[in-house]
Structures are given as structure tokens and as C-alpha cells.
Design goal:
With 936 residues, the protein is α/β, with parallel strands linked by helices. It has a 6-stranded mixed β-sheet with strand order 5-4-20-19-18-6. The protein has a 6-stranded parallel β-sheet with strand order 8-16-15-9-10-11. It has a 6-stranded mixed beta barrel with strand order 27-31-28-30-29-32. Helix 5 packs across helix 21 and helix 7 crosses helix 17.
Length: 936
């Protein structure tokens, strides 16, 4: 049972909120009365009064273990108190909490997200019946209620028509993450594979696609850069959370509790972030607050310090054995017999670039020439693009000194040197987050950071690690669903100088997840973003969107996305299944009401952990809503293919069979029924907790699956892959400086500049900025200053939402949403209106307090934030925690345009761009957007 309301001897009785209230009361009493005995009695009385909590109502029903997983990273335990089929209360894990000193078996505690789900279940505006759009897409009044029989029949017929008129590769299952029971999107994929002719897919995702891309090329890992198992962090001399807000985002169940305990053991924690996050506020001993999007410059400055002031302390032989291309090596020999001529030209190495035109490393015999890289870089775009013919600085001939980096990042040169020394002198565990890669030059900071960790030996040892802990150490029961896409190949393999087996993240297959709107908008031969693969793919004509709000809400430039999606000549059919009338659902042809977690059975695993969490079905969905598996079975039945789809299996039987298979294999040690009753199964801790330990010890015998067999600071394959994806990589507007790089298509080396280089470098963001009053001005590539867009928008993942999931929960909204007077506001949970959002329930935005007077604004004022792409209404909050020149808005609020086209929902993506990142062609939304702000 819950400890809430129990006596002192029975458990925790003081909540943080009530403790603060008590402290406030005590402080007031002291201020008035001094510290006499009488005042102390008054203080005690006030404190005792503050602890008088309401008594929980008794519930006569049952307690059901479960979870309500969504895409936050945690898969936390929620215990449901149910009476007569109604959820009366949700509490969290009530097992004994064993910390690091007691065996490290903590409670898998849920946060405010999962514990607020009761209102999410029972909102009156939940979708409860199938709907068909009879008017234009986006017209909320055009939807009419239809029967399931009609929905199944018409959707089956229209899918058949799409396959007959077009081809299977033009039917697309959209990226989605709103239902992490895995029944939603996977049921749709299984349907198209068993009752139809397959579907086109995508590669990577929206969360860390650039991270995946770079992990594939710089270390051959794929999906995420490999780090030690998370519990190994206790062996570090220092923990660095780099753009990692683990406590607020819940990056793995109880990651925040682990970090908190490690810090309490005396291991210092440093946060490197562009925002004072909840994680930084809670556990950081040091916050390095850099200008968002300048991480690559920070690492370059650190490397310069190590190469100039600590060169004698670097293990040069180790670096050469483990890092390809940190130093020049024209005749480099790969550890792999099938790779030849994979050298690093003189002056083309990363260390040469770091020193610029300084030839100190040439004099030291480590490089063959100073940097051959030019001072600017161009953009591989169409003539219609605002960036056509423009260039940004890359400082190819300039030394990347700590002072240079300080001018860009806002971090002092002294602090940059100290951070570099920390990496060299200590065992550092770095947990990398995803914020540093959400910009137009997403790939550079990731790449730089891996090289930094390798050259300082912060990998392959206990306590020394960089990246993301292994994605999952535990197996979930299989569902037996056919989910593979058609794996469409669009690639020119003649561009590769090495076997194609070295491509690790399917860049030769499908399209990047972020680029599907470009595919829909343009026919064969066209691409808004000049993407070579998109221009060679057939456009999608039917879209199946189960469990996602990414069609519109979670994409950049929502207004442009609406324009594309609204055109039925481009995409002829959109079928969405969701729980509410989200922005994406509003622009669909059919909207089907799905079941939430706890309204269907599941077993789920979280990020970086080693537990399987059970999701028991405790109630039926409301109205005519049903589980997505059953919806898809109904569509299959309308084609006479129900048996092909179900194979005689239900959701429950599929899970039970998947569990039994692993139990028979000796993996699970309890039965499916026992698991459902217990609600949690814990796998043994992994034996191999250290990533790359064998490679660290002997790289010759244990090479990595990169072409060189090493971590690659110089990746010829990355440059060739860009060309293999049908991108012209020759920039005729510039030349290299007294040097050459391998040409496209295995041609001879040429001296032309490139749009994509084989080494990491700092490239200013398209709409970013440098540190305040910098002597190195950021290029104004989009003329933002002249347009009055004085502020840079920075977004983050709010504690009260999981992306856009839970956005309408009134319990949570009243904690942060505001009305036009700055008072708490929420959308009425009793309203049956299917409207996406409501006026005067405003998303908060945060600005530096020093801007208030110039803008003529006060905290609580209603404002309009705007740029060329759109405008939103919001409620302004002034604070010194936001740097000057920035506006913070939490991502994920639901977009709803009013009659003037202004978004009343306050969705940040109304303002952000659809422009993909330079190399990976992935999402760039977080901190690469300029805006203006005025009083509304």
C-alpha cells in the first residue's frame, strides 16, 4: 500500500511540496519572532500543521500491477486500484527500495506522467467511435460518425485501390511513438504484410537519428554510440551529463535515482547544457552553460588545449592504434584485410584541422602538413532555397584555441581548459543526451565528442565511458507479428571504396524518418531539400498512422506540413488511430479510436535497464474504442484475410507464447501467469558491463566494424555514403588549401571543396547564434535580424508531457498552462468537444528578465511569438535562468490554428523548420530557429 498519510514510523510522510511549505512558515516565524523558545514552539506548530495531509479514501476493490508506457524512456511500475471496473487511484512501485548500498534493486517508480493517467483515461473528449472526414482535411466539423463495419470495409477497399493504382512502395506506415505497448504501429505493419502487399518504411527515428548515423560511421555501432552499462558509472572519477536531462525526461527507469546516489557518494557531476534543466538543478556540482548548438566548438577548443599544452601527456601511440585519422596517415593500413587504400591525406586529419595554419604538429613529426581545409562551407541546396550561394565559416585555417571556442560557446577559456584536463586526467563517464544533435549541423558535436573520449582513454575501462548505455539488456516476449517493410534500396554503390557491408545503419535503404513530407510533396525527380534519394523515390499515396502525432504536430513547420497533407492529389488516403483528436488526426480521412495501455495486455522494456514490466488489462476502452490489433483484424476480415492476420491468435495468446518460448529457452524463470501477477521480471545484470573493453586492450585482434577497424576521426566512408545517396559533394565555389581529398566515385584525389567533409568541424547553425557580444559573429543566413527575429527559440521535453502525449491532462496542465492573465488553466475534462485545443489555455514561454522592459511585457502577459513560418499565442514568464536572446518553449503542445492562422495551442513546431540536418538528413527542431515576440 502507499505510504502517503501514514505515521512517522511507517515511512515517508513529508512531501517535497509540504516540506517547502513548512520551511516557508518557519522562515516567516523566525523573521517576526527571532529564535526564542516561544518562536521555536510557533515554528513547530506551523510545521506540524503543514503536515496534516488528507486521508486517502478506502477502496474496496483490487490492486492490479501495471504500467502506462509512453516514449519518455522510462517503463515504470504503476499499481492500479480498481473498484467495479473503475480506476480509483494510481500509485507507483511499492516494493522495498534497495539503493546502491543495499544491493541496487530500486523501486521502478513512476513520475507525474504515469500517475496522472486516471484523468487521461476518463476524459469526455476521448475518441470513442470511428470517424470519417466528409469535408476538407483539417475541418473538425467535417467528421461524421460511422460504424466499425463501414470503417473496415471502406479502409480495406481504399487500400486495395492504392495498391492497384500505384505500388506497394507508395503505401507508407508513418513513424509513431505514442503507444509503447507496441501493439499500435506493429499491428498496422502486420496488417499490410498479411492482408495486403507490404509497405514502404523509413530508417532511424525522430529522436536520435543523427546520433545513429554518426555511431554507424565513426565506430560501426549503429543506433547509439556504445557506452558502459549504466551501473558502471559508480566507478568513475567524475560524471558528465552532456545535454542529458535524465531526471526530467526519465531516460531509463531510475537513472535519475542512480545518478543522485552516485553524487551522494562524492563523485562530482557536471552538466553541459544550454539550459538549466531539472537535472542540472538537482544533481550538478558544476553547470557548463554553453550557447545551444555550439558543442562542436567546445570540444574543438578542448582538443586544441590538449594538443598544445598537454601534448607530452597524450599517449600518441595509443591514439594512433585506436583512432583513424586523428593524425595524418596517407598510407594507413586497415585492421581488415578487405579494405585497401583508406589513407588520410597530409593536412586532412582532425588534428591538422584543429591547429589550422599552425604547423606545430608538422614540426613535431605527427602530421605531414597544416590544415588543407578552407575557411568557409557552402550548402548543397536548390536555387529556390534561401541558402543557395551562401557560405558559413568553418575556420579551416584558424587555430581552434580555447579563446576561439569561448567566443562561440560563451564558456570561458579557463573552463574549457579545465574540462579538457578533467578528461585527460580522470576516469570520466559521459552520458550523452540528444539535445546536442537537434540542429542543422547535428552530426558534428557527436562525432567530436567520441574522438575526445577515445584520445583521452575514456572508454573500454570501468568508470571510463562515453555515449549511451546499451539500449536494452533484457528481452521482451515476442508478439509473432510480421513488421518488416519492403526495404527499398535507393543507392549508388559505385561511390564506395570499401565493401558495402561496412554500411551499418541502412543508409542505402528507405528514406530518413524526417524526410517523408518531402517525398509526399514532390514527385519523382524533385526534392525541396535537394535530397538525392527522395528525388529517386516514388511519392507515398496512402499513409497509415497508428499511435502517432508526427504527421503534423511533431514535425517542423506545421503550417507547411498542413498544406502538403491537405492536398488529396498528393496523398490520397490517411488513416489514423489514436485516443484523442490530435492535430494529426484532424487532418486524416479516417480516425479510429484505439485502446490505451491497461485497456489491453502488454509487456514492455525500458531504456538502459534490465526489467520487463507487465501491462495488465484492467478495463475496457470507452464507447466503441478497441485495441489496434482487433481493429486491424477487422480490416483484414473485410478482405477475407482475417485468419491470415490473426493466425488464430489473440493479443494475450501471442504474448503468452512469446513468453513461454523464452521461458523454455531458460531465459525467464517464471511463467506468463506468474509474471502478470507479479508485474515485474528482472533479468540478471549483464556480465559484460564494459563497452569496447577488448578493442581497448588489443585493437589489432579486436578491430571495430569500421573500414579502418578503429574509431574514425577521418571517415572516408561517411563522405562516400553521402555521395552514394545521390548527393553531389563537389563545391566549386571554394578550393582546399594546398591539398586534396578523395574524389567522388573513386576518382583521383581532387582539390575541390566539399559540402560534407570526412572529419568533424564546427559549422554555425542555419538560424543559430554565437555567445553574446562575440568577436566571431554568427552568419545571418536567413536575414533574421532585419526581419525582427531577435530571439533564438530553444525547446525541450517537458516533465508534464511525453512529446505530445498527455498534453490534455488537466491534472498536469494546471501546473504549467496559463490563461491570458497568467493564472493556471486547462481544457475542461468534462467537455465532449473534439476540438484539438481551446482558447485561453496557453503554453508558457520563458525569457530573460532583462528583456521585459524593452518588450513592454510582464510575467503572465499573453504574447505572440512569430516568424515567416507561423505564429503562436503563449503566456510569458520572465526569469534569469534563460540567457539573453533566447526563448524557451517546451515541445509537444497540440497545434490548433484560429481564424487568423495563429496557433492557440502554442506548438513550438509551428515556428521551426522542416530543413533536415546536413549529413544524416534528420530532425533539426530543438534550437535552430529564430523568432520575434510581441504582446498579443
Amino acid at each position: 500500500m502507499s505510504n502517503k498519510g501514514k505515521g512517522k514510523d511507517q515511512g515517508l510522510t513529508v512531501s517535497r511540496r509540504n516540506l517547502l511549505k513548512g520551511m516557508g512558515a518557519v522562515g516567516a516565524a523566525v523573521a517576526v519572532s527571532g529564535c526564542s523558545a516561544k518562536s521555536q514552539n510557533t515554528e513547530q506548530a506551523l510545521f506540524d500543521k503543514s503536515q496534516q495531509l488528507p486521508t486517502e479514501p478506502k477502496i474496496k476493490g483490487q490492486v492490479v500491477p501495471g504500467a502506462t508506457p509512453h516514449n519518455c524512456g522510462g517503463r515504470c511500475v504503476s499499481n492500479y486500484y480498481v473498484e467495479e471496473g473503475v480506476v480509483k487511484r494510481i500509485v507507483t512501485d511499492e516494493r522495498e527500495d534497495k539503493g546502491l548500498d543495499k544491493g541496487n534493486d530500486p523501486q521502478r517508480r513512476s513520475c507525474v506522467r504515469c500517475r496522472s493517467r486516471r484523468e487521461w483515461f476518463y476524459r469526455a473528449d476521448r475518441l470513442q467511435y470511428p470517424l470519417k472526414q466528409m469535408g476538407k482535411r483539417g475541418d473538425i466539423n467535417g467528421f461524421v460518425r460511422i460504424s466499425w463495419e463501414q470503417a473496415f470495409k471502406e479502409i480495406a477497399e481504399k487500400l486495395d485501390q492504392a495498391y492497384a493504382k500505384h505500388s506497394p512502395e507508395q503505401v507508407f506506415v508513418a513513424y509513431s511513438s505514442g503507444d509503447v505497448t507496441n501493439w499500435s504501429r506493429n499491428s498496422a505493419k502486420h496488417l499490410l504484410n498479411t492482408a495486403f502487399q507490404g509497405f514502404a518504411g523509413y530508417r532511424d527515428d525522430y529522436s536520435w537519428a543523427a546520433i545513429d548515423h554518426m555511431a554507424s560511421f565513426m565506430e560501426g555501432a549503429g543506433y547509439t554510440p556504445k557506452a558502459n552499462y549504466r551501473d558502471d558509472a559508480v566507478n568513475a572519477d567524475e560524471i558528465i551529463l552532456w545535454s542529458n536531462n535524465t531526471l526530467e525526461n526519465i531516460w531509463g527507469t531510475q537513472n535519475g535515482w542512480l545518478i543522485t546516489q552516485i553524487r551522494e557518494k562524492g563523485i562530482p557531476v557536471t552538466c553541459i547544457d544550454g539550459r538549466v534543466s531539472m537535472t542540472a538543478d538537482t544533481v550538478a556540482d558544476t553547470l557548463i552553460a554553453l550557447t545551444p548548438g555550439t558543442d562542436a566548438a567546445l570540444v574543438a577548443g578542448m582538443m586544441h588545449h590538449l594538443l598544445t599544452h598537454r601534448l607530452n601527456d597524450l599517449d600518441i601511440d595509443f591514439i594512433k592504434a585506436h583512432v583513424h585519422g586523428f593524425f595524418d596517415d596517407p598510407k594507413a593500413t586497415s585492421y581488415h584485410a578487405d579494405v585497401k587504400n583508406y589513407g588520410v591525406p597530409n593536412g586532412a586529419s582532425l588534428s591538422a584541422f584543429i591547429l589550422g595554419d599552425d604547423d606545430a604538429l608538422v614540426q613535431a613529426g605527427l602530421n605531414g602538413a597544416a590544415s588543407i581545409y578552407p575557411d568557409t562551407i557552402g550548402y548543397n541546396v536548390t536555387r529556390e532555397d534561401v541558402l543557395f550561394g551562401k557560405r558559413a565559416p568553418i575556420y579551416g585555417q584558424q587555430a581552434k584555441t580555447p579563446e576561439w571556442a569561448s567566443q562561440i560557446t560563451g564558456v570561458s577559456a579557463k573552463q574549457i581548459c579545465k574540462l579538457a584536463d578533467t578528461y585527460l586526467d580522470k576516469k570520466v563517464t559521459t552520458w550523452m543526451g540528444t539535445g546536442l544533435q537537434r540542429n542543422t549541423e547535428a552530426e558534428q558535436g557527436i562525432w567530436y565528442s567520441r574522438i575526445l573520449s577515445t584520445m583521452t582513454k575514456n572508454f573500454g575501462q570501468p568508470g571510463a565511458s562515453w555515449g549511451m548505455p546499451n539500449w536494452a539488456y533484457v528481452k521482451a516476449p515476442g508478439m509473432g507479428l510480421k513488421t518488416a517493410d519492403l526495404n527499398i534500396s535507393v543507392y549508388d554503390y559505385s561511390q564506395l571504396s570499401v565493401p558495402k557491408t561496412y554500411l551499418k545503419n541502412s543508409t542505402d535503404k528507405d528514406l530518413p524518418a524526417f524526410m517523408w513530407l518531402d517525398n509526399v510533396e514532390n514527385g519523382v525527380g524533385k526534392s525541396r531539400w535537394n535530397d538525392g534519394q527522395i528525388a529517386r523515390m516514388k511519392p507515398f499515396k496512402a499513409i497509415v498512422n497508428f499511435g502517432g502525432n508526427t504527421l503534423l504536430n511533431q514535425n517542423g513547420d506545421v503550417n507547411l506540413a498542413k498544406k502538403i497533407i491537405s492536398d488529396r492529389s498528393k496523398v490520397e488516403l490517411i488513416v489514423t488511430c489514436d485516443h484523442f483528436m490530435t492535430t494529426s488526426a484532424q487532418f486524416s480521412d479516417y480516425v479510429l479510436p484505439g485502446a490505451m495501455a491497461m485497456e489491453k495486455p502488454a509487456a514492455t522494456t525500458g531504456w538502459f535497464g534490465h526489467e520487463v514490466v507487465g501491462v495488465n488489462k484492467v478495463m475496457d476502452p470507452p464507447g466503441e474504442a478497441m485495441a489496434e490489433y482487433d481493429i486491424c483484424a477487422g480490416i483484414a476480415a473485410a478482405k477475407g484475410k482475417k485468419e491470415a492476420f490473426t493466425q488464430g491468435e489473440t493479443m494475450e495468446s501471442r504474448l503468452a507464447k512469446g513468453w513461454k518460448k523464452l521461458q523454455d529457452d531458460g531465459y525467464y524463470d517464471i511463467s506468463w501467469e506468474e509474471f502478470k501477477k507479479e508485474g515485474l521480471w528482472k533479468a540478471p545484470k549483464p556480465k559484460d558491463m564494459i563497452a569496447y573493453g577488448e578493442f581497448f586492450a588489443d585493437p589489432t585482434k579486436n578491430p571495430l566494424p569500421t573500414p579502418s577497424g578503429k574509431i574514425e576521426a577521418f571517415s572516408r566512408l561517411l563522405m562516400e555514403d553521402y555521395q552514394g545517396r545521390y548527393h553531389n559533394n563537389i563545391d566549386t565555389a571554394e578550393k582546399l588549401i594546398d591539398g586534396q581529398l578523395p574524389g567522388p566515385g573513386n576518382s583521383r584525389d581532387i582539390d575541390a571543396a566539399r559540402f560534407v567533409y570526412p572529419i568533424p568541424m564546427y559549422i554555425p547553425l542555419v538560424e543559430g547564434r554565437h555567445a553574446k557580444d562575440s568577436a566571431l559573429p554568427h552568419p545571418d543566413l536567413t536575414d533574421a535580424d532585419n526581419k525582427g527575429y531577435r530571439f533564438t527559440l530553444h525547446t525541450w521535453h517537458r516533465m508534464q508531457r511525453s512529446h505530445s502525449t498527455l498534453n490534455k491532462v488537466a491534472y498536469l496542465n494546471e501546473l504549467y498552462k496559463q490563461d491570458s492573465e497568467g493564472k493556471p488553466a486547462f481544457v475542461d475534462p468534462k467537455s465532449k468537444s473534439l476540438a484539438v485545443w481551446a482558447e485561453n489555455v496557453l503554453e508558457p514561454v520563458f525569457l530573460n528578465a532583462d528583456h521585459a522592459k524593452a518588450l513592454g511585457l510582464s510575467t503572465g502577459d499573453k504574447v505572440k511569438v512569430f516568424n515567416d513560418r507561423g505564429a503562436i499565442y503563449a503566456s510569458v514568464n520572465f526569469t534569469q535562468l534563460v540567457p539573453e536572446g533566447f526563448i524557451y518553449i517546451g515541445q509537444g503542445s497540440w497545434h490548433q490554428a484560429d481564424k487568423d492562422g495563429v496557433d492557440i495551442g502554442g506548438n513550438a513546431n509551428t515556428l521551426t523548420s522542416l530543413r533536415p540536418s546536413r549529413i544524416a538528413k534528420m530532425m533539426t527542431l530543438a534550437n535552430d530557429c529564430r523568432v520575434g515576440i510581441v504582446k498579443a
